[in-house]
Specification:
This protein has about 110 residues and is of the alpha+beta class. About 45% of the residues lie in helices and about 20% in strands. The strands form two sheets. Strands 2-3-4 form a three-stranded antiparallel beta sheet. Strand 2 (about 55-60) and strand 3 (about 65-70) form a beta hairpin. It is elongated and about 75 Å long.
Protein backbone atom coordinates (compact mmCIF):
# COMPACT_ATOMS: atom_id res chain seq x y z
CA UNK A 1 0.00 0.00 0.00
CA UNK A 2 1.38 3.37 -0.96
CA UNK A 3 1.94 6.19 1.52
CA UNK A 4 -0.70 8.28 -0.22
CA UNK A 5 -3.27 5.50 0.09
CA UNK A 6 -2.41 5.03 3.78
CA UNK A 7 -2.92 8.76 4.39
CA UNK A 8 -6.25 8.70 2.54
CA UNK A 9 -7.35 5.66 4.57
CA UNK A 10 -6.37 7.36 7.80
CA UNK A 11 -8.23 10.57 6.85
CA UNK A 12 -11.29 8.54 5.89
CA UNK A 13 -11.24 6.71 9.24
CA UNK A 14 -10.87 10.00 11.12
CA UNK A 15 -13.85 11.40 9.22
CA UNK A 16 -15.94 8.33 10.12
CA UNK A 17 -14.92 8.58 13.77
CA UNK A 18 -15.88 12.25 13.80
CA UNK A 19 -19.26 11.55 12.19
CA UNK A 20 -19.96 8.76 14.67
CA UNK A 21 -19.16 11.10 17.56
CA UNK A 22 -21.56 13.72 16.16
CA UNK A 23 -24.28 11.10 15.76
CA UNK A 24 -23.70 9.85 19.31
CA UNK A 25 -23.99 13.39 20.70
CA UNK A 26 -27.16 14.09 18.72
CA UNK A 27 -28.75 10.84 19.83
CA UNK A 28 -27.98 11.70 23.45
CA UNK A 29 -29.53 15.15 23.09
CA UNK A 30 -32.55 13.94 21.15
CA UNK A 31 -33.08 11.06 23.53
CA UNK A 32 -33.67 13.50 26.38
CA UNK A 33 -36.10 15.49 24.27
CA UNK A 34 -38.03 12.48 23.01
CA UNK A 35 -38.72 11.00 26.43
CA UNK A 36 -42.34 11.30 27.52
CA UNK A 37 -43.08 14.79 28.88
CA UNK A 38 -43.96 15.18 32.55
CA UNK A 39 -47.65 16.02 33.02
CA UNK A 40 -47.99 19.24 35.00
CA UNK A 41 -51.34 19.33 36.80
CA UNK A 42 -51.22 22.71 38.54
CA UNK A 43 -49.22 25.83 39.40
CA UNK A 44 -47.54 24.18 42.36
CA UNK A 45 -46.13 21.40 40.17
CA UNK A 46 -45.07 23.93 37.55
CA UNK A 47 -43.18 25.88 40.21
CA UNK A 48 -41.10 22.77 40.95
CA UNK A 49 -39.98 22.12 37.36
CA UNK A 50 -36.19 22.15 37.12
CA UNK A 51 -34.53 24.80 35.00
CA UNK A 52 -33.72 23.91 31.42
CA UNK A 53 -30.20 24.45 30.14
CA UNK A 54 -31.08 28.02 29.19
CA UNK A 55 -34.27 29.07 31.00
CA UNK A 56 -36.01 29.10 34.38
CA UNK A 57 -39.65 29.32 35.43
CA UNK A 58 -40.93 31.45 38.27
CA UNK A 59 -44.54 31.38 39.48
CA UNK A 60 -46.34 34.33 41.04
CA UNK A 61 -50.01 34.20 42.11
CA UNK A 62 -51.42 31.94 39.35
CA UNK A 63 -49.24 33.22 36.55
CA UNK A 64 -45.66 32.59 35.62
CA UNK A 65 -42.60 33.82 33.82
CA UNK A 66 -40.03 32.04 31.69
CA UNK A 67 -36.73 33.86 31.92
CA UNK A 68 -33.42 33.44 30.18
CA UNK A 69 -31.02 32.26 32.88
CA UNK A 70 -27.98 34.38 32.01
CA UNK A 71 -29.60 37.75 31.37
CA UNK A 72 -32.83 37.28 33.36
CA UNK A 73 -34.72 38.59 30.33
CA UNK A 74 -38.43 37.74 30.28
CA UNK A 75 -38.99 35.37 27.36
CA UNK A 76 -42.57 34.19 27.92
CA UNK A 77 -45.51 35.03 30.20
CA UNK A 78 -47.68 32.19 31.52
CA UNK A 79 -51.10 33.75 32.00
CA UNK A 80 -53.85 32.74 34.39
CA UNK A 81 -55.33 30.84 31.41
CA UNK A 82 -52.30 28.55 31.06
CA UNK A 83 -54.23 25.40 32.11
CA UNK A 84 -57.54 26.21 30.38
CA UNK A 85 -59.00 25.40 26.97
CA UNK A 86 -56.64 25.30 24.03
CA UNK A 87 -54.19 27.55 25.91
CA UNK A 88 -52.70 24.45 27.59
CA UNK A 89 -51.45 23.29 24.16
CA UNK A 90 -49.84 26.66 23.44
CA UNK A 91 -48.26 26.76 26.90
CA UNK A 92 -46.93 23.22 26.47
CA UNK A 93 -45.43 24.04 23.07
CA UNK A 94 -43.82 27.24 24.34
CA UNK A 95 -42.36 25.60 27.44
CA UNK A 96 -40.97 22.75 25.34
CA UNK A 97 -39.39 25.27 22.97
CA UNK A 98 -37.43 26.62 25.97
CA UNK A 99 -36.18 23.12 26.82
CA UNK A 100 -38.71 22.06 29.46
CA UNK A 101 -39.90 18.45 28.99
CA UNK A 102 -43.42 19.10 30.27
CA UNK A 103 -47.03 18.85 29.18
CA UNK A 104 -49.57 21.21 30.71
CA UNK A 105 -52.82 19.58 31.83
CA UNK A 106 -56.08 20.87 30.36
CA UNK A 107 -58.28 21.78 33.31
CA UNK A 108 -61.31 21.93 31.00
CA UNK A 109 -60.87 18.33 29.79
CA UNK A 110 -63.48 15.83 30.82
CA UNK A 111 -62.10 13.27 33.26
Amino acid sequence: MSSIQMIKDLQYQQMLDSEQEVIKNLEAKLGAKTSKPILINNWDELSKVEDSDTHSITIDDHCGFVREKVSGKLEYYLSTHTFYGSKHKISTRELQSFGFNVEIKNWDAKS
